Amino acid sequence: MLRLLNLELQKLLLNRTSKILIFVSFILPFFVILLSSLKINVFGFFTLELGELGIFNFPIIWHLTTFFASYFKLFFAIVVVSMIGNEYSNKTIKQNLIDGLSKKEFILSKFYTITFFSLLSTILISLISFFIGLYYSSYTEASIIFRETEFLLAYFVKLIGFFSLCLFFGMLVKRSAFALAFLFILYIFEWILYGLMAWKLDINLAEKVHNFFPLQSMYKLIDQPFQRIAMTKFPNKENLAYDYGTHGYEIIIVLSWTALFVFLSYRLLKKRDL
């Protein structure tokens, strides 16, 4: 595993564009710190400081930071599809196979890289969240601080699932731009199917089926936290209540899609004439 990971990291770090995108993808989570210190002057009447509103209290901060940080994954998604596109355009994929790397090892090297960067990103966002929470949170009990850290697991699984999808599209079309376009097409396609099901069938059934779709299942791992924040400010508003938790079956769905995307990537490579 380490050999394959080291091989892939060398390729990425020798590519200037990949280095820049990796650097940006790891720098962007620090904008959460800027968000926590943001002060908004409301027409000169008063100053609104986000950090003082309680939204960075434990345990809600785990939910808030992982939700926002998950949108930064698009930058590393470009790296994933680029490393596949570069393999074909530079003919390095053929050279690797000639040098003794099996097709299975080639796909595994990509997956190990995806897992490695997903783990690094999860560790980074967990440290950022922890220190912001220590600074702003009014709760210091360990039982409260480490409650809901399952959002970190959900964040990790979400990254692996999304990057595995990017890997599959990269293998499918061999071009970075087209692979990213396929992500957008899949997103539109999922919502069109949902709309048709909601129109023809029961809307609740349509929503349940929609949650099994690739991109939607990844989104559902970490639901939006805004309604939850509103619930803390207006606890008597029962209409604001919703299920924002991360569930085991949601993780299983995304891991199943991940395994399928990696397998399909391998099958494409195995059948393709290089």
From TrEMBL:
GO molecular function, one term: ABC-type transporter activity
This protein's UniProt keywords: Membrane, Transmembrane, Transmembrane helix
TM helices/strands, residue ranges: 20-40, 60-84, 111-132, 152-173, 180-199, 251-269
GO cellular component entries: plasma membrane
Name of protein: Excinuclease ABC subunit B
Keyword Protease attached: no
Superkingdom, taxonomy of origin: Bacteria
